[in-house]
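hey can u check if this looks right to u? its 235 residues, i copy pasted from the old doc so theres a chance i mangled smth
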Amino acid sequence: MNFAKGQEPEPVATVPWATVNRFVIGTLERPATKKQRQAVRGERAVRAPRGRKGYDQVFAPCAYVASAEETAARVPGAEFALFEDAARERLLCSVGVPAKEARGVLAYPVRDAAGAEVGTVRRVPGGPLRRHTWRMTQPGHPEVTGTGELAQHGLAGKAISIGLAATSVLLDTATRAGADGKPRELTWAAEGKNVMHSAGSKEMTLRADWFDRRLAFAFALIGDGAVPNRGAAGA
């Protein structure tokens, strides 16, 4: 779509969050194209790609990310908060302060607008030859695990027995994934069935209809970096 000089593009309509199967978190609303050279940005939000890449693609918002100040004022005690509207008046969900469990696990409760717990996102620390992994629990459903390629194939555990040189290669891959600018890819599964794929903590593809999208949103807000993101309660 090409806009006349001085003409502002119409805001991209909000889409229902519960039906989103792919999303990113960001401000990009309309990417630059050959016809529209300048990208259009909007509110920081959970956004679902729509349309054809390079032509009429847009990133439609489905949930709006509250700033640390907005979260502290509207959802006291929460780390992060998402709202259904750009005015941040209709709370969608919040992510609480993580509880420290056994062996360094951080458990983040995810709550709906009424304060009822939707589920829990757990960050499981790694070790010398592997990065951290993830667990998600949703009432009435099997636990969802998020692991990288090395963990899926059991290579990290085998590294000790295959020699120092090979161990160094595996260690570099396991602990420095994403250092080259490429996000770490995780496969999320429950009882052997694929639930979600993530690239970094912002690009998600969901494959299970029963999975509550708010848990995926929470993971993206927490971040898949070496250190979890700090929100309002941790600032």
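The two ends are 41 Å apart (CA to CA).
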